[in-house]
Design brief:
It is built from 15 helices and 8 strands. α9 links the parallel β5 and β6.
Length: about 350
């Protein structure tokens, strides 16, 4: 079945560039740029960067410790371009035809060598180079981590607007610890984004906090998509809001289990969302950190979450239609993948 699932054309809406770096690339960059790593082999590195479902690590650990470790990997534009290029190659090998990748330019400037503009340009360069070899269309979502504060968020939002429609920049994301910094605290940041209308808005919510966080992301920030959103299941009124406004949920099953957003694959609400007619999708979140691929997420959906191939097709269609592409391109993408699932 895995070979069949791998061959299916896939669309992914929720993948972080920082969590997609190949392990070998981390070692290569450490050697090339002489930044310190506490390990020197792949065998030693993997348990430091990859989390298993039984690790006992929580969302806070991932946000604070693992992200800090991979933050060393952006010392130059060339390094960033390489990471973006390799992510597209990996996506192609996994059967993706469309991917939306997100990253925080501020986060990737931590070493002080690059500006936010350098980061965005380097990512776009890497994606452009990859497209010469791999037929994977990629949309870019500029993001900000809540922990960096509203001033930095405003700077990143302004930069995202400056790049809207250029090189595939299609959206803006608010990530980070939603419990510590609820959506409504960032309402003013999103007013110009909503007024401009060129960028799609996706908000991490309903992962580290409950259904109210999802509701506030929609009502205060104008979210069209919700990153994760699994805890929306806790409130029927929030589920009704999601349906009424046709909000797309970017669920990430392996990530959701590991971070404790859900207790297990068996209790994950993806099947419930799909049966209720909610636009839920399947995503890998951070493939390196969670040791997964989108094919693996499809396999888990079938084997561990009782998702049928028909429901899998519905999730894939939801991803195509929920992308931040123009309407005609969304419809064309959905039409392109639909027949492949009915014949699988």
């Amino acid at each position: 079945m895995n070979s069949v699932l791998k061959s299916l054309p896939k669309v992914e809406l929720h993948r972080h560039l920082v969590g997609s770096i190949r392990l070998q690339t981390i070692l290569d960059l450490a050697q090339e740029y002489k930044f310190p790593l506490p390990v020197s082999t792949l065998g030693e590195l993997k348990p430091r960067v990859t989390i298993s479902p039984n690790s006992g690590k929580n969302l806070g650990f991932i946000l604070r410790e693992m992200a800090k470790f991979t933050q060393l990997c952006f010392p130059s534009r060339a390094a960033i371009s390489r990471i973006a290029f390799e992510m597209i190659e990996d996506a192609f090998l996994d059967g993706l035809i469309y991917l939306e990748v997100r990253f925080s330019p501020v986060y990737m400037t931590a070493q002080g060598n690059l500006s936010q503009v350098d980061v965005i340009e380097a990512v776009l360069e890497g994606l452009n180079q990859a497209n010469r070899y791999f037929p994977v269309q990629c949309g870019v979502i500029v993001g900000i981590n809540r922990e960096m504060g509203k001033k930095v968020a405003k700077e990143s939002a302004d930069l995202a607007l400056a790049y809207a429609g250029k090189g595939g920049v299609v959206g803006f994301d608010l990530a980070g610890d939603e419990a510590a910094a609820p959506p409504r605290e960032f309402e003013n940041i999103f007013i110009p984004l909503r007024a401009d209308g060129r960028l799609g808005i996706t908000i991490h919510a309903g992962e580290g906090a409950g259904a109210r966080s999802v509701e506030d992301a929609i009502n205060y920030l104008g979210a069209q998509r919700i990153g994760h959103g699994v805890r929306a299941v806790e409130d029927p009124d929030v589920l009704d809001l999601i349906q009424r406004q046709n909000i797309t949920l970017e669920t990430c099953p392996t990530s959701n289990v590991i971070t404790g957003a859900v207790q297990s694959f068996a209790t994950h609400p993806l099947r419930f969302f799909l049966e209720k007619g909610i636009s839920a999708t399947i995503n890998s979140d951070d493939p390196t950190w969670f040791n997964t691929t989108l094919t693996n997420e499809y396999s888990n959906a079938i084997d561990k979450m009782n998702i049928s191939l028909q429901d899998l097709a519905k999730a894939a269609q939801n991803a195509a239609l929920g992308s931040f592409l123009p309407l005609e391109e969304r419809l064309a993408l959905a039409d392109k993948i639909a027949p492949m699932y009915t014949t699988a």
